[in-house]
Amino acid sequence: MGRERTSASGLESELAKHKGIEIHGGNIRIVFMWRRIRCRESLGLPLTKANIKHAALLRAAIIHEIKTGHFDYSRHFPNSKHATNYSNVKDEKLGALLERYKPLKAVDITPMTEEKYRYALDICTALVGIDRLAGVLLPEDIQLLRTLLIADRAPSTVNHYLATFAGFLGWCESNGYCRKGLSEACNRFAMQGREPDPLTRDEFQLLITKGCLHPQDSAAITLAVYTGLRPGELCALAVEDINLEGGQINITRAITADGTFKVPKTGKPRTVLLMPPAVEACRVLMSLVAGNPQQTIEVFQNRHESRKDKVTPLLSPTTQARKKIINSWFVPTAWNTKWAAIQKRSGIRPRRPYQTRHTYACWCLTARGNLAFIAKQMGHKDFTMLVDIYAKWMDDESPDELRRVWENIRKI
Questions:
Q1: What is the pTM of this model?
Q2: Is the pLDDT of residue 288 over 90?
Q3: Which residues of the chain does CATH 1.10.443.10 include?
C-alpha cells in the first residue's frame, strides 16, 4: 500500500514538471494553444514516467511547429474530430502572403494604381502585424484596424485602405490562408460630409462672370457642369473626341495626377450627348487650340496592355501659359488649383471640383430626367448609385411628380 502511494506521488511529481500535460479519463492528454483556440488531445497512453516524457516531447515539437508556421493538425492527430475543423487554413505570416499577393494584383492595374494599393496594403498590414499568422486573425483584429486607421485619417482615406485590404483578405480566404469572414469585417465608414453639394444657378453664373478670367476657364467649367464628366476625364479630353455635328463627346480616357493616361473608371468608353451650353463650350475650346499639333499618347488599359492615341489636347495649360516650357495637359491636381482660384474670385462657398459632376446629376434629376439616361451619361453601370446618392433631389416636389404620373396614366 505504501509502495503504491509512493509510486502515485512520483508520477504526480513528474507530471507537475511539464506544462500542458494532464490526465483525462485515466490517459495522458496534452494541451496547447493554436490559432487562439485551446486544443486538448488525448494520446491514449496510460500514466507512466516514460509516457509523460513522450507527451512532453510531442507537445514541445507541436509548439515549435506552430511558431514556425508548419503545424499540421491532421498529421499529429489524424483521428481527432477537430482535425478537419482546425486544419482548414494554412499557417502563413501576413507579411509573406502580402508579398505574394502584390505582384498578382498588379497584373490587373496600372502602375500608379499599384503604388496606391501598395501603400494602403503596407499600412494596414503593419497595423495588424506583419509577423502575425493569417490563420489566427479574427474579425476583432479587423475592427481594431478600423479603430487605428480612423484615429488620424479622413474617412475617405480610411475607406480606400479598408477596401484595398479587404481585397487582400478575400484572396487569403479563397486560398485557405485565413478563416472566412475577415474581408467582410472591413466595413467602410459612413461619409456624412460628402453628400452632393451642387452649384446653384446663381453660383454657376458667378463662377463664369466673376471667377473666370479667360474664355478657356469659363468654357471648361460650363462643359464640366453640363456633362458631369469626372475631373480626370475632363482634363484628358482631346479635339478628336468631339463631334459637334452629332452633339456628342466620346469619353475614352482619363488622366491621373502623375500625367498617366488610362481608360475611364468603369474600364469602358462611353458617349455623352451634349446640351446646347456644352456644345458652345466645346466650340470655344476647340477654337482656342486650333492649329496646335497632335500628340501621340499612351493610354493604359491595364498594366501590360496599352494603346496609342494621336490627339490634340482640348483643355491645355499652354493656351494661357506665359512660360515656354509647360505641360500640354492639365492633370487633376493642377485643375484643382485653378478651380480653387476661380471659386475664390467668384466669392462663392468653396467646393471640390468633383461637385461639378454632382451639379450635373442634381440638375438633371430636378428636371425629371430619365434615370437610366442620366446614369449612362455619367458612366454608371446602372441607376442604383443615382438612387443611393441623389435621393434627396429625386424626392423634391414629389406631389408634382405624382400629379404628372397620374396625368400620363390617364392618357394610356
A1: 0.66
A2: yes
A3: 201-354
Q: Write out the DSSP string of 211-272.
A: I--SHHHHHHHHHHHHH---HHHHHT-BGGGEETTTTEEEE--EE-TTS-EE--TTSS-EEE
Top-level CATH class of 201-354? mainly alpha
* pLDDT 10s digits, 155-175: 989 999 999 999 999 999 999
Fold of 94-194: DNA polymerase; domain 1 (1.10.150)
Q: Which of 52, 77, 81, 51 is nearest to 65 (CA)?
A: 77
> Could you tell me the CA-to-CA distances from 283 to 128, 209, 274, 280, 374 in Å, in that order?
54, 19, 12, 5, 23
Alpha helices by DSSP H, listed for 107-154, are: 111-128, 139-150
Contacts by 303-310 with C-beta closer than 8 Å and gap 24+? Answer: 303/106, 303/107, 303/108, 303/109, 303/110, 303/111, 303/114, 304/107, 309/238, 309/240, 309/252, 309/253, 309/261, 310/240
The amino acid that residue 306 corresponds to is S
The secondary structure of residue 157, as a DSSP letter, is: H
Residue 2 has a pLDDT of: 46
- Please name every residue paired with 243 in a beta bridge, in sequence order, or none if there are none: 248
The pLDDT of residue 192 is above 80: no
Distance CA 275, CA 281 (A): 10
- Taking alpha carbons only, the member of 52, 54, 70, 51 closest to residue 62 is 70
Residues forming CATH 1.10.150.130 domain(s) in the chain:
94-194
3-state helix, strand, coil split of the chain in percent (to 5) is 55, 15, 35
